[in-house]
# Entry
Amino acid sequence: MISLHPNPPGQLILIHDAKAAGKALLTLAAHLALQGPVYVLDGGNSFDVYRVARLLRRHTVHIAHCLDRIWLRRAFTPFQLVSQLEQTAVSPHPLLILDLLATLETAVSEAAIRPSVAQHLATAFYREIARLQSHRPVVVGLRTAVHPAWQRLVQQLQHLANQRLHLAPPTAVSAPAMQLALPGVS
# Structure
């Protein structure tokens, strides 16, 4: 169960999942949009606005108003992701980072960046997430890290995190839906 409170700041929640917590973070984005603004930084091009709209429809008829509260930015390279984190202003509104490691793993697997650059990027990610987390709730979706620099980044984030969730892949038997406990949302 995810417990995310807009105040006080300083929360960092990591969600480990094979799909980088796509469904869990989309559900969380919908619930937070019912309450107010939410920032979403999509590192894996996985933000499904249609799914979020369907989730919102269960709670309100003001779907467009709630969708307007979601401020979405996408990053397609690790350099764009660092830049967007650096440009993210300090604010009390929650920040959801979908699939943090997607652009990083792709760049490494395609040999687009050297190991020293990978380490520099990992340091920048940690620095920026720590900066933002000190002012707002931050939820990060993570897949399994392959590159050593990303493994170190995940370890550092785990140390900084208030909550860590490991979501198991779906099984053939239907599992109960994950419930999110958010204040003010029934």
Q: What stands out?
A: The CA atoms of residues 17 and 37 lie 25 Å apart.
